[in-house]
Amino acid sequence: MMRCTYDRSRANSMDTTVAIAVAVATAAALLVRVAHADIKITHIVSDARPIIFFEEFGFASGGRAAVSIRRATWQLRPGSRLTSVDVDSSLMGFVLIAGAQFPWINNQTQYYAADPGDGGGGFCLLTSDDYALPMVRLSDVPPGGVTTTVTIDYPDAYAVVFSNCQGGVEVTMDVRTEMYNLRRDDDASSSGGGMMIRDYLPVGLQPLPGIYAGVAAVYLAFLAAWVWTCARQHATAERIHAVMGALLLFKALKSACAAEDTWFIERTGTSHGWDVAFYVFGFFKGVLLFTVIVLIGTGWSFLKPYLQERDKCVLMVVIPLQVMENLLLVVIGETGPARRGWIAWTRVFLLVDVVCCCAVIFPILWSIRGLREASRTDGKAARNLKKLTLFKRFYLVVVGYLYFTRIIVSAFLALLNYRYRWGVDVAVEGASFAFYLFVFYNFKPEEKNPYLYVGDEEEEEEEAAGETDDGAF
Q1: pLDDT digit string (tens) for 382-424?
Q2: Domain 203-454 is in which class?
Q3: Closest by CA position to 65, among listed 230, 198, 183
Q4: What share of the chain is helix, strand, coil (3-state, %, to 5)?
Q5: Three-class DSSP category at 249
Q6: Residue 276: exposure state from Cβ atoms within 10 A (0-12, 13-18, ≥19)
Q7: What residue stretches are annotated with the GOST seven transmembrane domain (predicted)?
Q8: Up-side HSE of residue 54: CA atoms within 13 Å toward CB?
Q9: Domain map (residue ranges) of the chain
Q10: CATH code of the domain made up of 42-186+193-199
Q11: Contact 84, 77 (CB under 8 A)
Q12: pLDDT for 291-328, tens place per residue?
């Protein structure tokens, strides 16, 4: 069996690439939370990366993974110590890696990186039958291109990976990946047929069309109830309530587009443009969500009809960051992990998301501090303490919601079997609905609003205090 030799830096690079690609791909998939087409065409141009991570897919028994390669060429990277005679194109090719094998691959690369001189060289994923299922090597690709299809005998989540075990060699090629499972057509079965059709959704995401459709229906009903509540209490409805209604509308539209997106992908492998609508409505939903949190946190339209300069500064930071985050979301979702710079874009996306989550906390803390100081000085302790309690509760819920959807769910995804990854979407949507329900219930329009209403006892105390003050004066 042929093996390639490369230095410690190359082995470390391969190890880091594999680990980062898997971790970042998982984080990005969690944040995007919508299935994209599993028929993809990727153009690789002068790429010398030892590992190129294409796609991951949850297969059932009998699933298929197809890779089509066109215009495959290679060249020496400038400054390479190799010559054309030294290059072995059989050490460059595609493999399938089961998700459970990634720790073993990292262990092997770390072992050879620790002592590259021992054992005759470094670890080459392409030549390791123990860890990877070979698909096609560049030495077997004719000038006109080739298509290779592998049938999955053992169900698992597999990743299509290109392995380049020739240090200093750049690869250029057009790659089309197509992954799907086979299932019996229900309509054909009812008419006595046994036709098998392709299902382009991974095993763990097949319930998503129904889940997203249900979420869209729930938020549409939520929106109808909110409009009815605001109409009944139109005398006490504030501008913030209209913004909150718009948030519900775009959340429902985003979920509906996600349902259509996954439904088309399940049957055709492509989203037929529904991903564009998903990104558009997701953009407005994301901007409105953080805007509502900031506006409620500052007490706008409840405690005061204006925003202070520092509150405006927070909005001027959060809204552009949300615009940037949604643009990065499009880049991450549409380019895929095979593109160079994808990991860097994903890191920027995660950083922007964290900054947004931190920024919306400050207005709530400022309001809590202001109410605490006011309760000690303005003689309206009961009312201010009631507002203070509500703001503290709002703060804890916001922190808990952001912490759960960004961190806890990530750990949940890492531990979850690939067959049940739809459970992550259910958990996130459930947490989001609970968060929306809390916010909308506590800040709904009502006559005796906790922010504005002063009870009879407190009014009597304030009047008595006023008479005492006047007498003393």
Answers
A1: 566 666 777 788 888 888 898 888 888 878 887 888 899 999 9
A2: mainly alpha
A3: 198
A4: 60, 15, 25
A5: helix
A6: middle
A7: 207-450
A8: 30
A9: 42-186+193-199, 203-454
A10: 2.60.120
A11: no
A12: 888 888 777 655 555 556 776 777 778 878 888 887 88
